[in-house]
Amino acid sequence: MSEASSAPGAVRVRIWDLPTRLFHWLLAACVICAVISAKIGGNAMVWHMRLGYAVLALLLFRLVWGLVGGRWSRFSSFIYGPTAYWRYLSGRARAEDQFEVGHNPLGALSVFAMLAWLALQVGSGLIADDEIAITGPLVRFVSIETSLSWTAHHKTWGQWLLFGLIGLHLAAIAFYRWRHGKNLVAAMVSGDKALEASVPASRDSAAMRLLALGLIGLAAAAVYALIGLGAA
Ligand code: HEM
Predict the structure, then answer these.
(1) Is-contact 65 24, C-beta < 8 A?
(2) What's the angle, vertex CA 166, arms to CA 164 and CA 171, rounded to 5?
(3) Which of 14, 61, 181, 194 holds its CA 20 to 30 A away from the CA of 157?
(4) 72-117 tens-digit pLDDT
């Protein structure tokens, strides 16, 4: 199945439901602000930590949304097997392949890598100790050696690889625009892509949005409780 924005009969199909779009733009904003606050340091570190908690809540939400969210936001729609990768990379997509509807195979790898690396970055922040004034809320649950080695990871490879993954993400989006003329950003804003009418849409009803609101509330409560463990 190929994207058919220019094909006759193409219609607007909802691919990214509102919760997925809000998740994406909030995640991007929180990550960017977390990096800026870390670079400023000092009192801004309070915000660095708060933004890290927000990223964790968003990641928890996305984990569940990947199971119950709109069709094209579900992990099952973008977990591909080796043969699908082979068909995609060798340009031998079958008629039933829907690589260009949601996340394509390479995009999916980059999405999973970003989500996993962000989780590791937040996790290492929770047990970090800068040996001056700032400690993560869960630092007392690990030894000082463990804390210091994960702090070093957080401040070096953790952030460098994250920058690399985000850079790759943006480069891939620009490449798609330039090479294939596809505006992926517009779809992440409006939620819609111009596709063949036979492509099933993601459910984006009021009930789904309400469900997402409940889930983000639960995710925030879980993060609040987790942070509270360190103070108990
Ligand atoms: C810190 C910055 C960013 C992070 C961490 C990030 C992360 C992500 C993640 C996790 C997804 C998957 C969405 C999902 O399925 O839930 C995604 C998709 C996407 N992002 Fe970003 N993003 C960032 C910045 C941006 C920016 C600045 C743009 C626009 C210029 C952008 C455009 C997109 C688009 C278009 C998609 C959909 C790609 C596709 O069609 O497969 N992202 N991003």
Answers:
(1) no
(2) 90
(3) 61
(4) 999 999 999 999 999 999 999 998 899 989 999 999 999 999 999 9
Residue 27 Cα to ligand 1 midpoint, Å, equals 9
How far is Cα 5 from Cα 194, in angstroms, rounded to an integer? 5
Q: Is 103 in the pocket of ligand 1 (CB under 6 A)?
A: yes
Smallest CA separation from ligand 1 atom 21, residue: 24
Give the global pTM: 0.95
Whether the CB of 45 sits within 6 Å of ligand 1: no
Residue 145 to residue 92: CA distance in whole angstroms? 51
How many angstroms does the Cα of residue 161 sit away from the middle of ligand 1? 16
Confirm or reject: Cβ of 27 under 6 Å from ligand 1.
Answer: yes
Q: Whose CA is nearest to atom 35 of ligand 1?
A: 185
Cβ neighbors of 68 (< 8 A, separation 6 or more) are: 74, 211, 215
* 169 Cα: distance to centroid of ligand 1 (angstroms): 7
Task: Specify whether the backbone of 153 is left (phi greater than 0), alpha (psi in -120 to 50) or beta.
Answer: alpha
**How does pLDDT run across 39-73, given as a tens digit for each residue?**
999 999 999 999 999 999 999 999 999 999 999 99
DSSP letter string over 73-84? GSGGGT---HHH
